[in-house]
Amino acid sequence: MNLSKKFQSVAPSSTLAITAKVNEMKANGINVVGFGAGEPDFNTPEHIREAAIKAINDGFTRYTPASGTKELKASVAKKFERDNNLSYGIENIVISNGAKHSLMNALGVILNPGDEVIIPTPCWVSYPEMVKLNDGVPVLLKASENEGFVVSAEKIASAITDKTRAVIINTPSNPTGMIYSEEELRKIAKLCVEKNIYVISDEIYEHLIYGDKKHVSIASFGEDIKDLTIIINGVSKTYAMTGWRIGYTASNAVIAKAMSNVQSHATSNPNSIAQKAAQAALDGSMDEVIAMKAEFEKRRNYMVERMNTLSGVSCLMPQGAFYVMMNIEKLIGKTVNSKLITNSNTFAEILLDEALVSVVPCSDFDSDIHVRWSYATSMENIVEGLDRLEAFLNKIA
Fold first, then answer.
1. Which terminus, N or C, of the chain has the lesser number of Cβ atoms within 10 Å?
2. Residue 202, by phi and psi: left (phi above 0), alpha (psi -120 to 50) or beta?
3. Is residue 66 a contact partner of residue 198, using CB atoms and an 8 Å limit?
4. Does the N-terminal peptide bond of residue 122 adopt cis geometry, omega within 30 degrees of 0?
5. How far apart are alpha carbons 20 and 26 in whole angstroms?
6. Mean pLDDT per 10-residue run, the chain (397 residues)?
7. Cα-flanking dihedrals φ and ψ of residue 144, to 5°?
8. Considering only CA atoms, which of 101, 85, 102 is closest in space to residue 93?
9. Chain centroid offset of residue 204 CA
10. What is the pTM of this model?
């Protein structure tokens, strides 16, 4: 069959593939403990659900403007003013079908064939594929564990060429859970202004930061960097609304208009009912979000402390999101029941087969020596999963 070469070059999401396999095993009655899902295990808060029900009963079920309702855009603008000290008008906001859609829109309107996008790694698996889908060239720039998984402005500067169009910054990060300090972000902002490079700032986990760390948006450092920044955000992670599919961008008006035009042809408007729910989320109380974050912090602390007592594995303490990157470098070359661990992929496969524990291999995130654990699951599952991991590690020869 003769298909598009561009689309054939795109790899499937390893995260979704792992999740699908685990769901199939569970459907067959196999007792798998899963740590792959990148979504909160909490229900969407009641006032948000009630807003959606009201929208249905009010007959709010028809087309809206392609880039979202004025009311939701106004709520997004208020959120940026309240949370990030950023002033945007509704002409700067585009509402899309999830943050993934927002990212595709952003890359689609700024990239020409052959343009390079610098992506600090370990990174979310979809970034490089999205760049390729939009005819760009992903330039992967790895940060080590010793660097706290944060790529410095100096390292970014070393990767810039005359083809560099943008850099993607994800803070807090999926998969590492680490955040960029204000000092480092200011250096990156200065560099991008000097080089006239766009920043795609993925801030989807901004409200899931623990301890005394704080989120700072790179766009807040002045009008020059704000004009070059496309902020990606949404309601999925903060409000446990992954299935509602509402993301949004903030950018200069020219880029926003271009994204709106593209979206009008690609998908038309985001779901009308979900837009009303998102508006209720952004305008409403944060009490349930705060409670959810507190529970995530307890789970994180237990997982990290327990994991670092086990033989052959280790991890850093993540500062945000709900992921732990477990280092398996000491296990490479070892065997379990004659099965050889060669990288993160084989480790994840063997762990699933032998211990019925599913984690996400980080090879597609640009790290062969790590696997990602999500603590967006119950404490009961976390305890059971780590018990199984400990028993598994004791079998390794």
1. N
2. beta
3. no
4. yes
5. 10
6. 81 71 88 91 98 98 98 98 98 98 98 98 96 97 96 98 98 97 98 98 98 96 98 98 98 98 97 98 97 98 98 98 98 96 94 95 94 97 98 92
7. -85, 170
8. 102
9. 6
10. 0.96
